[in-house]
């Protein structure tokens, strides 16, 4: 079993640095795609900041550049996995059960094919069971289909999406009489490369008030009750269409916290260095004053140019300083402090 010192030495080597970067990229991609972008934040902080610092790779320039490399590489890799997942078809959908025996008015609603190039004519099908309408609710008048790029939207002004998204509605009013089940089919060719979404409903008119009510399919709760698909475009087209959005999310939700943490680390290290320098200065031995006479001597140094003790806190003060670095006392108002003993106990030279 390797000791922590050996692990640190390895991580500080060229191979170790490369391994840290690869692991950070894989952790960020995996968390971003499968666990959510918020999980990518601790993954990036751990493998892109904490482990390198622990291994001795503490230079802010190195940490900033490797962090940028991780983000730049992870975004397109994550986008490839996300695009691949988008082409996986979803299963059939049905409306909620309205009877104790488990009857649903709309059953096995699907779109086929699930993906295709621009110009593909997609087909939506559903089986309708009027017998499963709750008693007293009214009469089935039509089945409606909504197709848009806004998940779950049943209108062109959904609060979940910015205005101006493509939206299409289709109604089938060929409702046979009686309670026998029947099928409904819609066909539509979405006009642009995109990930389209849809929702379907049985529209019921109340026999007493004349008001309309809607029995929707049970969509994906994370998709705002919408159903994903169809996917219009090739893998490359969808990949390029979403690459910019993925880069934005990676840099905004993962990169920003990383660089904020790096700035905080730099601030703390800078403050630690300042305190260490101040402590070293306070413990420095007093400088000996040069002889003011004798052969070969240049010019006589005055007492004001020698190190002295602060009259307020006794800290060693360097020559020509007007205020104490430690307590802030005004030294120019206390010229007599030049003759005060230094913290070491030795009298000032001169």
Verbal overview:
This protein is of the alpha+beta class. It has 3 domains: 116 residues; 114 residues, Sandwich (Immunoglobulin-like), CATH 2.60.40; 50 residues, no CATH class. Helix content is 35%, strand content 19%. It contains 5 helices and 11 strands, in the order ααααβββββββββαββ. The strands form 3 sheets. Strands 2, 4, 5, 7, 8 and 9 form a 6-stranded mixed β-sheet that branches. The chain has a 3-stranded antiparallel β-sheet with strand order 1-3-6, with no helix packed on it. A hairpin with a 6-residue loop joins strand 10 and strand 11. Helix 3 packs antiparallel against helix 4, helix 3 packs across helix 5 and helix 4 runs antiparallel to helix 5. The longest helix is centred in the last third of the chain and has 48 residues. It starts with a helix and ends in a 33-residue tail after the last strand. The C terminus is likely disordered.
Question: Summarize this, please?
Answer:
The protein has 350 residues and is α+β, with helices and mostly antiparallel strands. The chain is 35% helix and 19% strand.
């Amino acid at each position: 079993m390797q000791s922590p010192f050996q692990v640190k030495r390895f991580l500080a080597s060229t191979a170790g640095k490369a391994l840290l970067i690869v692991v950070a990229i894989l952790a960020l991609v995996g968390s971003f795609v499968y666990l959510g972008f918020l999980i990518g934040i601790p993954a990036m902080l751990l493998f892109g900041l904490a482990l390198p610092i622990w291994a001795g790779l503490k230079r802010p320039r190195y940490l900033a550049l490797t962090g940028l490399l991780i983000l730049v590489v992870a975004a397109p890799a994550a986008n490839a996995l996300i695009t691949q997942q988008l082409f996986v078809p979803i299963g059939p959908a049905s409306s909620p059960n309205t009877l104790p025996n488990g009857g649903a008015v709309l059953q096995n609603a699907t779109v086929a094919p699930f993906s295709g190039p621009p110009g593909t004519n997609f087909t939506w099908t559903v089986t309708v069971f009027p017998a499963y309408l709750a008693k007293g609710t009214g009469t089935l008048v039509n089945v409606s289909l909504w197709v848009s790029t806004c998940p779950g939207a049943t209108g062109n002004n959904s609060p979940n999406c910015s205005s101006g998204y493509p939206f299409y509605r289709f109604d089938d009013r060929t409702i046979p009489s009686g309670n026998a089940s029947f099928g409904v089919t819609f066909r539509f060719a979405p006009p642009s490369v995109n990930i389209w979404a849809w929702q379907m409903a049985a529209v019921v008119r109340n026999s007493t008030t004349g008001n309309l009510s809607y029995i929707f399919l049970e969509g994906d709760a994370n998709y705002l009750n919408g159903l994903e698909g169809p996917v219009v475009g090739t893998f490359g087209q969808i990949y390029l269409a979403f690459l910019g959005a993925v880069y934005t999310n990676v840099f905004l939700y993962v990169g920003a916290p990383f660089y904020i943490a790096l700035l905080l680390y730099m601030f703390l290290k800078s403050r630690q260095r300042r305190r260490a320098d101040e402590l070293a200065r306070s413990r420095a031995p007093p400088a000996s004053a040069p002889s003011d006479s004798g052969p070969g001597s240049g010019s006589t140094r005055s007492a004001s140019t020698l190190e002295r003790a602060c009259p307020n806190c006794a800290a060693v003060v360097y020559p020509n300083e007007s205020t104490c670095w430690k307590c802030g006392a005004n030294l120019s108002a206390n010229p007599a402090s030049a003759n005060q003993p230094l913290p070491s106990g030795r009298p000032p030279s001169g």
